[in-house]
Amino acid sequence: MNHLGETSMALRLGDEAPNFQADTSEGKIDFHEYLGQSWGILFSHPKDYTPVCTTELGYVAKIKPEFEKRNVKVIALSVDPVDSHKGWISDINETQNTNVNYPIIADADKKVSNLYDMIHPNASETTTVRSVFVIGPDKKVKLTLTYPASTGRNFDELLRVIDSLQLTSQFSVATPANWKDGEDTIIVPSVSDDDAKKKFPKGFRTIKPYLRYTPQPNK
Ligand code: BEZ
């Protein structure tokens, strides 16, 4: 149940990421228009002018070129108003030595927070938890994460996941535990050995019939 006593369905992987219009620190946006053909990361934080959030939004600004390289647009959200976001951005830039140059949604009426089930009342009735939604160019939800207020997220992990998602959307591979860009990948079980020979000209090694490694196909 949300703060209005309405039940909201959590978004699941493969669901369409709902569209919305919202005020942001960079003006009004239509979410789907903002994303265009890009991948997207929509992430919420509990509150402006709080320490962990300050480090998180600063870090995202720092690695924004890495997101851009991967054709990913980032957008943050909290239930604070635009004026608060604008003032806080100055603090983030001052303390984190960054230039926050992506929009922060001002979701004072909690419209988007409820749409994306970002308020977990048993954690906090009034503020969003640390939610992350990775959205593909098809506007489908590819990954969700929920972190508590006390734990800052690992945004390098999001880059790693994006690398995996983009690779696995193009080739019949999956990525093993702790995989990083450039390392060997796993051939999905639905591909037969005969087909694997054609699809993966660099070859593959079979540990078990269901566990076959091949060099990263796009390297
Ligand atoms: C923080 O960002 O530091 C924070 C925000 C809400 C609750 C606890 C910590």
TrEMBL record:
SUPFAM superfamilies: Thioredoxin-like. NCBIfam families: PRK13189.1. CDD domains: PRX_1cys. Keywords: Antioxidant, Oxidoreductase, Peroxidase, Redox-active center. Residues 11-167 form the Thioredoxin domain. Pfam families: 1-cysPrx_C (PF10417), AhpC-TSA (PF00578). Its EC number is 1.11.1.7. It is an enzyme of class 1 (oxidoreductase). This is Putative peroxidase. Belongs to the peroxiredoxin family. AhpC/Prx1 subfamily. The keyword Signal does not apply. GO terms for cellular component: cytosol. GO terms for molecular function: lactoperoxidase activity; peroxiredoxin activity. GO terms for biological process: cell redox homeostasis. The active site is at 53 (cysteine sulfenic acid (-soh) intermediate). It comes from Leptospira biflexa serovar Patoc (strain Patoc 1 / ATCC 23582 / Paris). It comes from the Bacteria.
